[in-house]
Amino acid sequence: MIQGNNHVCIVGAGPAGVVLSILLARQGIRVTLLEAQADFNREFRGDTLHASSLEILAQMGLAESILKLCHARISKFQFSTVASKITMADFSLLKTSFPYVALIPQEKFLTYLVNEADKLPSFHRIMNAKVHDLIIRNGKVCGVIYMKDGTMHEVNACLTVGADGRGSRVREQAALKLIKTMPPMDVIWFKLPKEHDPLTGNSTGGRFGVGTMLAMLDRDHEWQLGFVILKGSYRTLRERGMEYFHDELLKLAPELIKSLQYLKDWSQCSILSVVTGRVDCWHKPGLLLVGDAAHVMSPVGGIGINYAIHDAVATANLLTEPLLSGNIKETDLAEIQKRRERPVRFIQTVQSVMQRQIISSALKSEQQFRPPVLVRILAGFTVFQKIMAYMLAYGLRPESVKYS
Ligand SMILES: Cc1cc2nc3c(=O)[nH]c(=O)nc-3n(C[C@H](O)[C@H](O)[C@H](O)COP(=O)(O)OP(=O)(O)OC[C@H]3O[C@@H](n4cnc5c(N)ncnc54)[C@H](O)[C@@H]3O)c2cc1C
Questions:
Q1: Which positions ≥6 away from 267 have C-beta within 8 Å?
Q2: Selection from 289, 399, 304 nearest residue 351 by Cα
Q3: Could you tell me the CA-to-CA distances from 246 to 149, 212, 235, 253, 349 in Å, in that order?
Q4: Does 17 sit in the ligand 1 pocket, CB within 6 Å?
Q5: Distance of alpha carbon 141 from alpha carbon 297, whole angstroms
Q6: pLDDT-derived band of residue 201, with 50, 70 and 90 as boundaries?
Q7: Shortest CA distance to 11 belongs to which of 138, 150, 209, 174?
């Protein structure tokens, strides 16, 4: 059993949990990080780091090393159809040392960060440790119970942080209810090895066809692909068969012609039901939720990792002093929600508009989809591309590190 009066237990080694661990442990605060999995190789993880998160990593002295793990830098978010290409956001217009979106596989990103955390004497990491329950005494959360190697263990802590992602067990055990919204789409998520043929360039972005959409992430030696479908239509697609699926993919991305030979079976694809949402209250005495545990982010815009990192920074900024003084109150925890909720609500609204106005209309379209006229007109202006880039990269209230 791990004991502690002035000890923080963080559940989940995603971007939120790991960044928070480093920031707190660097100040000498005792941190135990529990991660359910044995490593960081995940099916459903994004790769995109925006300028504001790279600035945070620079403030932590880590950006240079992390950028060495980056295999591509995207300067524009573009939607393409067979006939045209629309630039929705141009990151090269931003005034920053990082005028791009860095693509870094999360496995490498998180492995690098936990290795950094492991160097800190007040940090303790336990992998393969799946949290089952909260320890509650006199109405206050005082730690967690987790399973490792078939045995239950306890961590006692003055603060428990649920950073355990979209399906948060901590949130469930604390009875903090997620108010879900169901974007009208599901995503068929799969990888293909990259065959270098003449058409291959930097193809990261969204492609629209007739009632179809494909999100492509160029991961250097492979493609990470998301074929977006209307919610609930996966069965119909499967019934049409793999050959039909190949044809649809080729219409959207002819450069996949060689790579597609490796997609033989539906078992190579995972179906992701896109869910978004947020909890009304992010805290209870002794407990705080951050990242996707507090607000499940849609993959649209590739910003979920950034919001998780910004939550971690806000938490460290606001809680370092109360934790060091050994006097942490629920009002301190409420400050974090107060600071982060508006930026999260704002960007979720932007995502929802994009989902309804662009993605959903594209999937319902019986002709070659063209984005709404207003979007096409606005996207022709550099100022619009800059505003969109700023909104995605920084949002309403970007954080910066107070205690690095
Ligand atoms: C298909 C898909 C694609 C996406 N693409 C992007 C993208 O390109 N860019 C982007 O910015 N965002 C993307 N997102 C969103 C992004 O992945 C999330 O917003 C982000 O990972 C949230 O970070 P987090 O640290 O809050 O949680 P997570 O990254 O989900 O990490 C939670 C961690 O908690 C662990 N855990 C869970 N339960 C327990 C338990 N009971 N005990 C112990 N540990 C536990 C998990 O194993 C996991 O490691 C995507 C999401 C999806 C679904």
A1: none
A2: 304
A3: 42, 13, 16, 10, 34
A4: yes
A5: 26
A6: very low
A7: 174
Hey, how many other C-beta atoms are within 10 angstroms of the C-beta on 243? 8
What pLDDT does 205 receive?
81
Identity (one letter) of the amino acid at 204?
A: T
Q: Is the CB of 189 under 6 A from ligand 1?
A: yes
| pLDDT tens digits along 302-357 | 899 999 999 999 999 999 999 999 989 999 999 999 999 999 999 999 988 888 87
Whether 83 shows a pLDDT value over 80: the answer reads no
CA of 67 to the centre of ligand 1 (A): 20
**Does the Cβ of 12 fall within 6 Å of ligand 1?**
yes
Our answer on whether the CB atom of 302 is closer than 6 Å to any ligand 1 atom is yes
Residue 185 reports pLDDT greater than 90: no
Greater model confidence, 17 or 270: 17
At residue 307, what is the residue type?
Answer: Y
Q: Give the CA count within 13 Å in the CB-facing half-sphere of 240.
A: 11
For 294-344, give the DSSP string: TEEPPSTTS-HHHHHHHHHHHHHHHHHHHHHTT---HHHHHHHHHHHHHHH
pTM > 0.70: yes
Q: Which ligand 1 atom is the nearest neighbour of the CA of 132?
A: 41
